Amino acid sequence: RLYQIPFEMPDCEGESETRTLHLVGDFSAPAEFFVTLGVFSFLYAMAALVLYVGFHSIYGENKKLPIVDFCVTVCFAFFWLVAAAAWGKGLTDVKAATWPASLIAAMAVCQGPEVVCNAGTTPAMGLANISVVR
Predict the structure, then answer these.
(1) What domain count does the chain have?
(2) In terms of Cα–Cα distance, which of 72, 79, 82 is closest to 48?
(3) What stretches pass through the bilayer (predicted)?
(4) What are the tens digits of pLDDT across the range 86-103?
(5) 27: exposed, middle or buried (C-beta count within 10 Å: 0-12, 13-18, 19+)?
(6) Taking the CA atoms of the chain, what radius of gyration do you get in angstroms?
(7) Is 57 a member of any domain?
(8) Helix (H) or strand (E) segment spanning residue 21
(9) Taking a C-beta distance cutoff of 8 angstroms, is the pair 12, 109 a contact?
(10) Range of the domain at 101
(11) What's the CA angle centered on 71, arms 67 and 76, to 5 degrees?
């Protein structure tokens, strides 16, 4: 929900005045889907572990239970792939919306003929990239 993030920008008309700008975009849905699926996968893994260890005899005797377990595991694997792809796309969109060059291009202050705007350092996105790879 980048639109909720305000940042201050100097206003060249008045030296001490600033304007509040907001970022553009709402990329929360892919992140929420990714995290929700991760939580449900963890809960299912814990339930399956209890079934495997605590009720091993029931799991071995029932012929349908392993098939149901396999089908649920395949569904989780498929949805995990979809969630990782969705989060990867969402992260790419977040990077594009928050890239310093795109922020400078959106600032009216930096559009003057003799104005030079510098973004400074490039943000570190290493940990965000790792979250997609996992």
Answers:
(1) 1
(2) 72
(3) 33-55, 67-87
(4) 988 888 888 877 777 777
(5) buried
(6) 24
(7) yes
(8) strand 18-22
(9) yes
(10) 28-107
(11) 145
- Which residues pair with residue 19 across a beta bridge? 9
CA 52 from chain centre, in angstroms, equals 33
Whether residue 53 has pLDDT greater than 80 = yes
Q: Is 75 helix (H, G, I), strand (E, B) or coil?
A: helix
- What is the spatial distance between Cα 102 and Cα 112, in angstroms, rounded to a whole number? 16
Give the pair of three-digit tokens for residue 91: 């992260």
Phi, psi at residue 87, to the nearest 5°? Answer: -70, -35
Q: Decide if 129 is inside a domain.
A: no
What confidence score (pLDDT) does residue 26 get? 78
**By the 8 A CB rule, do 27 and 2 touch?**
yes
Token pair belonging to 92: 């790419």
Burial bucket for residue 34 (CB in 10 Å: 0-12, 13-18, 19+): buried
For helices 28-54 and 64-98, the axis angle rounded to 10 degrees is 150
pTM (two decimals): 0.67
Domain for residue 117, yes or no? no
Question: Does residue 1 belong to any structural domain of this protein?
Answer: no
C-alpha–C-alpha distance, residues 63 and 108, integer Å: 68
Q: Residues 3, 23: contact at Cβ < 8 Å? A: yes
